[in-house]
Amino acid sequence: xxxxxxxxxxxxxxxxxxxxxxxxxxxxxxxxxxxxxxxxxxxxxxxxxxxxxxxxxxxxxxxxxxxxxxx
Amino acid sequence: xxxxxxxxxxxxxxxxxxxxxxxxxxxxxxxxxxxxxxxxxxxxxxxxxxxxxxxxxxxxxxxxxxxxxxxxxxxxxxxxxxxxxxxxxxxxxxxxxxxxxxxxxxxxxxxxxxxxxxxxxxxxxxxxxxxxxxxxxxxxxxxxxxxxxxxxxxxxxxxxxxxxxxxxxxxxxxxxxxxxxxxxxxxxxxxxxxxxxxxxxxxxxxxxxxxxxxxxxxxxxxxxxxxxxxxxxxxxxxxxxxxxxxxxxxxxxxxxxxxxxxxxxxxxxxxxxxxxxxxxxxxxxxxxxxxxxxxxxxxxxxxxxxxxxxxxxxxxxxxxxxxxxxxxxxxxxxxxxxxxxxxxxxxxxxxxxxxxxxxxxxxxxxxxxxxxxxxxxxxxxxxxxxxxxxx
Lengths: 71, 391
Hints:
The structure holds 2 protein chains of 2 kinds. Chain A has helices at residues 26-29, 56-59, and strands spanning 12-16, 36-39, 42-45, 65-69. Chain A is of the alpha+beta class. In chain A, the strands form 2 sheets. A two-stranded antiparallel sheet of chain A has the order 1-4. In chain A, strand 2 and strand 3 form a beta hairpin. The mean pLDDT of chain A is 88. Among the domains of chain B are: 7-56 and 94-168 and 262-336, 3-Layer(bba) Sandwich (FAD/NAD(P)-binding domain), CATH 3.50.50; 339-388, no CATH class. Chain B has 10 helices and 19 strands. Chain B has helices at residues 14-25, 51-55, 95-108, 158-161, 231-242, 288-307, 313-341, 346-358, 366-376, 380-388; strands spanning 7-10, 30-33, 48-50, 65-69, 71-75, 81-83, 90-93, 112-114, 117-125, 128-136, 139-144, 147-150, 173-182, 190-194, 204-209, 215-222, 247-257, 266-267, 270-272. The termini of chain B are far apart. The chains are: A alpha+beta, B alpha/beta.
């Protein structure tokens, strides 16, 4: 799933599977640092602000979020 | 759209539209801003609502009523079903049309309504709130106002800008998924609930008729980091089992806070309503009329605040008082009741429902129900009795 992405901050990051994401915002509400950006049919996670708390992963109704390793 | 208003309402769901309408009716200059391109879409709701309660807000109109329901039923994972005596007619709405009608009513009352208008932040002077930056069709607009009403839903940003504690604990958050199914052969006069933790862990499923062989079939599950299956996985399993011949017309998903309302719903110049303020019922997560009531209370206090030229957090606390007087005790009870119910082991739950299913409808009183529950699960007295006694 997805190509590994380089991150200056963490050795892993939250990946969004866009085949499953419905842009509902369920993840946004439970994100303490408010690092998930949702605009219409766009969902982005700011890898620098993300603390990898992983609360968004089980909150997602479609299972679109996973923790991925950075290459 | 102008550059200055008395009140800006962020979000044109039922709560926001009611708030905008009430403020406009009181003679205030109101802007109702919706981030999406179409009000009422996508629908994120099971769409059931009590008829009498709803009629307090808007005259009933057949064009947004999909089905009229006579009573509710509860089915266990072993497929025993209890039919509950009817308390009130329940309507299953067509939210796409309903939400648009409510926004239309706000516009008729004098509010300016704008879509594709995303709030990007507050304009502040020190701690004072002076307005909202809106991105309207891609163009930033600074809109000055004296009061902002945040009705921006579960994913609300306005609560964060206002400095409110809005991030729920995961155990107090439902992950939800729903299909609109067709070719379902159900009694269109009954709203079905289904319980069984193996089908929906710490949650429940519903089958709500929408007319013409269609139904909203969905579920909520309490978020659990140890759970590896998503809400959609559980829904697919249920649909495959119960409605194998159905087809899917649409799919909606979302998150719903069931934490009880925010500890603080106001800040200087700001009031949060609806899902932004976590106003959904902390047991069922039903939120349409409760959010609308929140909108009504917030508008009432906003109007008063502007009349008295006091938009301070202290003054706006009146809104929290109005809410608490109406819902506070019930919500605290429902919050604890949910936790008690979800502790009942599934086999006990199944056995309770099987026994209740054998009772005559006329014997399905609260006392009888409670007797069945106590026989099966004596611990319930410890968990629930204090709630019934109002402690």
